[in-house]
Every structure is written in structure tokens, then in C-alpha cells.
Amino acid sequence: GLTWKQCSQGQSGNACATGTLATMGWSAALSAANAENFAGASDWRLPNALELKSLVETACYSPTINETVFPATGAAVYWSSTPQSITGLASSWVVDFEQGTIGANTRSTNYAVRLVRGGRSIDNFDVNGDYTPNAFAFTAQNNVPLNSLRTSNAINVAGITTVTGIGISGAAGS
């Protein structure tokens, strides 16, 4: 469900041959995405780290991207929108299309930008929204061998009035 901008920021035209690859700090990259109005759409954004990593073509090297689909990308490093907080520094995740690796760097470093739109999103928080589902239960499955795959009974999650993430984990008492 994603639509990628074929050319990197600063490039345009057939085979992205017009202009030059623009590099910028993370804040400027977010601002550029927010200001973008390309192909009649104004909802362009900086991809998250997993979305950007999905463009890595493991059969290619320097650049590790399909150059037919994304021409003139080169072996550049690209910003993602995903912050990284382990280092204690203001840093965010990047993807290096020379080797296809993912890492983090300080937000003041200048890197390239490729924009995306669409995908899965969560609504803005609505103070009046109901985020708690009605009670539901899965049918107990007893005497199940360890490490065996089982499928639960189907349920319908009801009672919520907004888009929200749902996760299932563990069993009672585990």
C-alpha cells in the first residue's frame, strides 16, 4: 500500500536525470516531506526505517536498489523517520544503499531523502474515542505439545470507535 516517489529529493524528470541529489539534516528532511506537493498529492512523508529498508535489493551492490525502478539513487545514505534513542544522542535510523545496511546517525548529518505516501496509519488520538474493545475470549486448547502451531477460534473485535493497534500475546498465567 505504499507509493514511492521515484526520484530522490533534488532530482526529477525522465530517469531522475534533472537536478542533483539533495542532502539535508533530519529536521530539514521532515520539513521537506511536509512541504512536498508532487503528482497532485500533499501527503508525502519520510518513510520509517522498515519501509526504507524494504527497498534494499540484496542481489545488487553499490547501489543496493533496483535502479530501473529508482534511477540515479547511487550509493547514498537515506534518512528514515524513525528516531533512535539508544545512544542518548538525537539520532535517527538511516539506510545505506551502498551496502544495503541500516544504522543510526546524528540528526545534524546530511543525508539523501526519498519520500513515500500511503501505507498503514493510525488515526490521531481522539479524546472522545473508545479505545477499549468489548470483552472477548479464545477457546482454551489443552494438552497442546510445546512448539506446535495451533489456530485459535475466530473472533470479532468490537466496541472500539477509532483505528487502533491490536496485539495478542501470551496465555493466562504465562
Low-confidence stretches: none
Q: Could you describe the largest sheet, including whether it forms a barrel?
A: 3 strands, antiparallel
| Mean pLDDT over all positions | 86
Helix content: under 10%
Distance linking N and C termini: 36 Å
Total helical segments: 2
Overall 3D shape? elongated
Whole-angstrom Rg: 21 Å
The tally of beta strands, per DSSP, is 9
User: Approximately how much beta-strand content do the residues carry?
Assistant: 15-25%
What structural class results from the helix and strand content?
mainly beta
| SSE ordering | EEEEHHEEEEE
Spatial order of strands in the largest sheet: 5-6-7
Quick structural overview:
The chain is mainly β. The protein has helices at residues 26-35, 49-53, and strands at 2-4, 11-12, 18-19, 23-24, 77-84, 91-96, 101-106, 111-112, 116-118. A hairpin with a 4-residue loop joins strand 6 (91-96) and strand 7 (101-106).
Lay out the secondary structure.
Layout (H helix, E strand, L loop, with lengths): L1 E3 L6 E2 L5 E2 L3 E2 L1 H10 L13 H5 L23 E8 L6 E6 L4 E6 L4 E2 L3 E3 L56
Describe the structure.
With 174 residues, this protein is mainly beta. 9% of the residues lie in helices and 20% in strands. The chain contains 2 helices and 9 strands. The chain has helices at 26-35, 49-53; strands at 2-4, 11-12, 18-19, 23-24, 77-84, 91-96, 101-106, 111-112, 116-118. A 3-stranded antiparallel beta sheet has the order 5-6-7. A two-stranded antiparallel ribbon has the order 1-9. The longest helix has 10 residues, at 26-35. The chain is elongated and about 60 Å long. The chain starts with a strand and ends in a 56-residue tail after the last strand. The model has no long low-confidence stretch (mean pLDDT 86).
